[in-house]
Amino acid sequence: MINDNPIIKITNASKSFGELKALDNVSLEIAQGEKVVIIGPSGSGKSTLLRAINQLETIDSGQLIVDGHNVCDLDEDINAIRMELGMVFQSFNLFPHKSVLDNLTLAPRKLRKIPREEAESYAMELLAKVDIQEKAHQYPAQLSGGQKQRVAIARALAMNPKIMLFDEPTSALDPEMIGEVLDVMVKLAKEGMTMVVVTHEMGFAKEVADRVVFMDHGQILEVGTPIHFFENPEHPRLQKFMDQIL
Amino acid sequence: MAEEKKKVRIDVGDGAAIPSKSDKGLFSAWLLSFFLAVGALLLLLFYPDPEVSDKYQEILVFLADGIVITFQVTLSSIAIAIVIGFFTGLGRLSKIWIINLIASTYVEVVRGIPLLVQLFYLYYAIGEFIKMPDMVAAIMAMSICYGAYMGEVFRAGIDSIDQGQTEAARSLGFNGAQTMMYVILPQAWRTILPPVGNEFIALLKDTSLVSILGVADLLRRGREYASTSFDYFQTYTLVAIIYLIITLILSKLVSKMEERLGQHDQR
Ligand SMILES: Nc1ncnc2c1ncn2[C@@H]1O[C@H](COP(=O)(O)OP(=O)(O)OP(=O)(O)O)[C@@H](O)[C@H]1O
Ligand SMILES: [Mg+2]
Predict the structure, then answer these.
(1) Residue B108 touches chain A, beta carbons under 8 Å
(2) Please, which residues have CB within 8 angstroms of residue B93's CB and are 6 or more apart in sequence?
(3) Mutate to test the pocket of ligand 1, among A16, A48, A214 (most ligand atoms within 8 A of CB)
(4) Which of A21, A167, B89, B126 sits in a 20 to 30 Å window from B255, CA-based?
């Protein structure tokens, strides 16, 4: 993959929590339309890296350019940048006081000032895409985990983001529900969405990832194609990690 | 998981005992008190001996203005206290240390000084430099005092909402104020509203203190009447019954509200 015009450019990013280096001089460039899967042991800094991209976590040093904007620059409108960055969380974080449909339309209506009818018809389209339109008028508490996560993906898509970030979207799900969420993500990938996905679902990585990134102790230790990761991982810690998760 | 964060019940105490269906003892105590109070009021006002009933009717007419003033002070103070409480609650949750410190200090100081002393301080001590009308001083003192208590209510209510809700809203592009307005407060109000109702009742009772400042509230009107007619027993009996009926009705309303909020949680 040639990155002459990356949509995300992370340069020497570092972040500490007290003594602990959650990100240690991380550099990574991601091209428009590219799908990057991030793997690594627990506490290796995967979430911190993902959350730094939309500034849910600030970095202590380094540079972060997203879609041409320096997100660390306080003069930039971070809220406008975030509208272009959809985020999906491990714990769904749907708005429990809103119906499924209202979960999807809240941000477009309030932030993009889209009229209710238009926002709702687009929301219904998205719900159809994640195959859950029949639940539009229910509340999150009435949905299964897999359904909640598909709604959460649709909610992020409702803002028409340029990039989608996923932080272990299937880790909180019962095994029988993982497939339905991954199917939606594969569909999204095939449509050309730029995706950064923290996951240990190597089947998903193999199917859609252009590159896999291995992190440990806040550092990126290895970057390569899924095939490379399966067939000849180089770093000893990556070899050990691949043995554990496969 | 965000949606499953347990519902917190905030008890600030000091309000009237709120009856609820699940609490049979209190429920019947409420009924008994209410019927006793209303019964006593009707008995006194329509006592067979016209000399007695005329007296009580005359006192009630004299007190009527005071009831209005009591409600004016209560409603104005609670409205201001809610605004103060909201910002104090936010301040107490703020990660900016200076804001947090100011909010926390305000709460500490106000909670450490008796309301009556605060009233005197604002009216007489501050009054030496800035003259303000009785009513304004009274409402200010009540709001400042109750704002601190409200601050704790808002702090606990907002804090009960999962951090993931804020992150989800911010990642969609909502700013801090929008997140508060569209995502946090609509969820937090269920935990906030019942204790606010309690505080409202407590505040209404505490407004009797402002009678000392010369605000012509219910108690003050009673004192005025009693001191000229010397009918202390009759006057203060009526004053007490009126306070009781008002607070009993209000606590019933608060418990109804709590029940309805509880039902919504089941959806
Ligand atoms: N807000 C925080 N305060 C203190 N330490 C934190 C905070 N967030 C993360 N950390 C620490 O930073 C390190 C990296 O955390 P991070 O969540 O990025 O790891 P991760 O790779 O996503 O792990 P996991 O697979 O468990 O989700 C961990 O050691 C974690 O304990
Ligand atoms: Mg993580």
Answers:
(1) no
(2) B100, B155, B158, B159
(3) A48
(4) B89
What is the Rg, in whole angstroms, of the alpha carbon atoms belonging to chain B?
22
CB distance A168 to A90 below 8 Å: yes
Reading the block at residue B161, the tokens are 């909402």
List the alpha helices (DSSP H) in chain A: 46-53, 78-83, 100-111, 116-129, 145-157, 175-190, 202-208, 226-231, 236-245
Phi, psi of A192 (to 5 degrees): 100, 10
Best mutation target among B3, B161, B175 (most A Cβ atoms within 10 Å) is B3
- Do B151 and B103 meet the contact criterion of CB atoms below 8 Å apart? yes
The domains located in chain B, with CATH, are 24-266 (1.10.3720.10)
| Structure-token match 């602990």, residue found | A20
Q: Which of B213, B235, B205, B238 is nearest to B223 (CA)?
A: B235
- Give yes or no for A97 touching B (CB within 8 A): yes
Closest to B60 measured CA to CA, from B238, B240, B253: B238
Look up the ipTM and state it. 0.94
pLDDT per residue as tens, chain A (246 positions): 445 689 999 999 999 999 999 999 999 999 999 999 999 999 999 999 999 999 999 999 999 999 999 998 888 999 999 999 999 999 999 999 999 999 999 999 999 999 999 999 999 999 999 999 999 999 999 999 999 999 999 999 999 999 999 999 999 999 999 999 999 999 999 999 999 999 999 999 999 999 999 999 999 999 999 999 999 999 999 999 998 887
Q: pTM of this prediction? A: 0.85
Helix crossing, A145-157 with A175-190: angle to 10°? Answer: 20
